[in-house]
VOC family protein (Streptomyces plumbiresistens), 137 residues
Amino acid sequence: MASRLNPYISFNGDARQAMEFYKDVFGGTLRLNTYGEFGQPDVPEADKIMHGMLETPSGFTLMGADNPPGMEQTAGTNFSVSLSGDDDKELRGYWEKLSADGSVSVPLEKQMWGDVFGMCTDRFGIPWMVNITEQQS
């Protein structure tokens, strides 16, 4: 899988409705996963979207999720740029450059869903998410 760059939008509890709306607008395949499906079945947000991805026939990719518990959303914090793919070396290289002189909110490390993932804000204030999937052999 080639690396890709796409927007990632955060929502205040209505990610499912928003992502379904975007599917109606753009068509394509929509995958939604809840906090409950990713190992948090007992939290009040268990039915909220932890990760959603819409891939369209035109080649668009749009990702979105409900804000994680305890994370406030204010103007300007509802959007990140997402880098994802299975090229570990390439994506770690991007991570090192993006996080240098910036701030790391989630260290780049193995996560509960099995991928290596991290979040940082670069020195210009742009939030980034990097997700490295394990290469399939």
In short: The chain has one domain: 4-132. The CA atoms of residues 109 and 116 lie 5 Å apart.
